Amino acid sequence: MRAVKFYGPGKVGLEDIPVPVPRSAEALVKIKYGGICGSDLHIFRQGMFVAKLGETMGHEFSGAVVSAPPSSGLSPGDLVVGDPRVPCGTCAACIAGDTHRCSSLGFIGEVSPGAFAGYLAIAPEKLVTLKGGTDPAQAALAEPLAVAVHACRRIITAAGSGNVLVLGAGPIGLLMAYLFKNVYAVKRVGVFEIDPFRLGKAKEAGADERSADIESLSGQYSCLVDAVGVETVLNKAIGAAAPGGCVFISAIYERTPQTDINTLVSKEMTLVGNNAYSFDDLKEAAALIGSGKYDFRWLVTSIMSAEEAARGFELLTGKEKRDLKILLRFEGE
């Protein structure tokens, strides 16, 4: 089977490797689509997270069950998505059941073979089944949608359903904007983004207000979300928040940011981090996709063959953005 491998920053290639042989307690899944994630871009640019070079990449996927233990309840042909998280199982968060807060949380495609391949062996309890007839390309969005579900749930709990400004119109930021408006009934949803293409996508996500000028939005939102992960955007969020407001960080930083803590103090603001998702969040994301009530096709801008993986990474990390979510197709394996 073909597998997309990481060989070092800026180096992604394709190899032919054996189909994995599942252990007695594992299921074998034939991968249909794999999504290039923001975390994959951190790997591509900086080599973050990966345990070793030559690892098979990818943790967003949809696929069909080939085989599974009889006790799993899975049947050959079932359309599934999976929980790719690899928690340590021994830290305080894991013991408490909060595996998304694991002190050394990893993912398949980083610390073990990932889903950018023809087949994946995985524990059946990590799989979620979607109803028949669900579009497998949209199903491949379940993992990033779970990230957005987790963040939105926490934000709604803390800040209510009044108004939210999302800074950054990448896949996670736009999925959050979409959920805020279409699922969680937030009254006013804004998106700040300097890239014209991605700002246009905010309209498809249903944002009420879209702007490349943060000053025009200053003081109008009590809840803001940093969905970018760069110092300037974090400081813009803190500066633009209304007094007493909340800033949620739903991003990974490649460089440690500096900010003026005195601004947080003087405004009596709350700064909150969001990390990954729980298994319940993944099930909720899969249910939203499988319900047929919501259309996420607008998020996918390109579907490429596995042979085009390197080009997909180059497009998503280039200066000129003309793609948002790229899916890699493995159905022909």
Write the layout of secondary structure elements.
Blueprint (H helix, E strand, L loop, with lengths): L1 E7 L2 E6 L10 E9 L2 H9 L8 E2 L3 E8 L11 E4 L2 E2 L5 H4 L10 E2 L11 E4 L4 E4 L5 H4 L2 H18 L3 E5 L3 H12 L5 E5 L3 H9 L4 E3 L9 E6 L4 H10 E9 L11 H7 L2 E4 L5 H13 L8 E6 L3 H9 L7 E5 L4
Walk me through this protein's architecture.
With 333 residues, this protein is of the alpha/beta class. 29% of the residues lie in helices and 27% in strands. It is built from ten helices and 18 strands. It has helices spanning 38-46, 92-95, 136-139, 142-159, 171-182, 196-204, 231-240, 261-267, 279-291, 309-317, and strands at 2-8, 11-16, 27-35, 55-56, 60-67, 79-82, 85-86, 106-107, 119-122, 127-130, 163-167, 188-192, 209-211, 221-226, 241-249, 270-273, 300-305, 325-329. The strands form four sheets. Strands 3, 5, 6, 9, 10, 17 and 18 form a seven-stranded mixed sheet that branches. Strands 13-12-11-14-15-16 form a six-stranded parallel sheet, with helices on both faces. Strands 2-1-4 form a three-stranded antiparallel sheet, with helices on one face. Helix 4 (142-159) packs across helix 5. The radius of gyration is 20 Å and the shape is globular.
